[in-house]
Amino acid sequence: KIGSLTRKTVGEKNMNKANKTILLVGETGAGKSTLINSMVNYTMGVKCDDKVWFQIVEDEKRSQAESQTSDVIVYEIFGFEDKTLPYSLTVIDTPGYGDTRGTEKDDIVITRLFELFRAEDGVHEVHAVGLVMKAALNRVSDRQKYIFDSVMSLFGKDVEKNIEALITHSDGMPAKNVLEALQAANIKCAINEKNQPAHFLFNNCLNTAITEDNEFGLDTAWRVTERGMNQFKVFLEKTPPQKLKTMVEVLNSQIRLKACIQNLQERIKFTEEKQKEITETKEALKLHRKEMENNEKFTVEVPEYYKDKKSIDGGWWGLGFYEGAVCCTVCEENCHHPGCTVAWSAGSCEVMKNGRCTACTRKCPVSAHVKEKWIYETKTRYVKKTNEDMKNKYEINKTKGQNKQSLFENLEEEMNKLTAEKSQLLDESYQHLVRLEQIALKTDSASTLDD
Fold first, then answer.
1. How large is the angle between the packed helices 103-118 and 245-287, nearest 10 degrees?
2. N or C: which end of the chain has fewer CB within 10 A?
């Protein structure tokens, strides 16, 4: 396991041997599973004449419902260095990106990849991002475009030199239609010596048992895949890896900023509600001014806004996700909600930096926070208060040296403070939005998807 992610390992890792990491992305049914098995057999040095086939990934003959999982699986192939490759392989298999369940499931996969990249024992560099595509492809669909743009949004533009097309179900003929489709869709990837998108061909029949009838065809299929793997090997050896440390830091910053913006929006709303409370209180006082002047015990009904806890849908789900909210019990604010799924506790949430929260008003320490299945929400209640009650409420923050003012003057002063506070919160929110735009790795890929 890597955190809550699945890791499948063949052989034993030798720390003195080099390792190359490949990330595979593609639509459900593109042929990723068979391609991974082909990589395993190639790494082990299996040849067609051996009449044997090793399988680390299940067949893609499972039902579509079974194959549409949101799990990211890491395959590690150790112990076969110098058979055909001078290094071991790590292959990250992303599940049926862009399947029929919609882009919200794709976003879960992005979150899982992020978890993998930031885990201490996870993956910290990627040598190749393989866009797995069928040889019969004539057009990149909106869903496929979304898939590929999602990867760009995760890594940034520097990853282009590491991206290549891994073309499956190929008969070995030039994949002219696939290359034209990539260029027409403006999919950015590495360029080969022929000034074409870097691509490699693979056949998906290698797991078929050899018979007298198919022996010739399978021999051709093996040669197609072996040639593709040989060329891919050269690509891996000459392409510098994409280091993920900076990317993880940037994505953490994006998550923090988004959480801060959400928190600021809630604080702005609460400020507006307190302004509404003062306005309604002043109106009630004006209406009953004479009665209150003549009778100190006379009460008026005024609104009072307060914080309360509200249950939300959440808890453990999937393979290790904990849907919940990180809240500050001192400020009584929601510091990360919605979107807090990776962190198992408040201390491991992205909004925490150097032991303190970056979102709440007082920037409180981690110890003041909880991750639970509830959030703070603002509620209204109407209470009866005397003139003296309200004087005490709105003079509570005054020092002894300050001149006493009438209740109306105190209310007006409080309104001015809230107006200034709201202006400050709006400005802070705007600055966060500007910063978010500045560090954005790429425009949100969802904008390219036509539903």
1. 120
2. C
Give the C-alpha separation, 182 to 171, whole Å.
Answer: 19
Six-digit token pair at 25? Answer: 């992305």
How many angstroms separate the CA atoms of 315 and 33, rounded?
Answer: 31
pLDDT tens figures, 108-123: 777 778 878 877 788 9
CA dihedral 37, 42, 48, 50 (to 10 degrees): -90
The pLDDT score that the predictor gives to residue 286 is 85
Residue 84's contacts (CB-CB under 8 Å, 6 or more residues apart) are 42, 43, 45, 229, 233
User: What is the per-residue DSSP string for 125-182?
Assistant: EESEEEEEEETT--S--HHHHHHHHHHHHHH-GGGGGGEEEEEES--SS--HHHHHHH
Q: Which domains does the chain have, with CATH numbers?
A: 6-243 (3.40.50.300), 261-448 (no CATH)
Q: In terms of DSSP H, where are the helices of 142-288?
A: 142-155, 176-184, 215-238, 245-287
Please report the pLDDT score of residue 275 as a whole number.
Answer: 94
Confidence of residue 451 (pLDDT cuts 50, 70, 90): very low
Find the length of the chain.
451
* Helix pair angle (103-118, 142-155), 10° resolution: 30
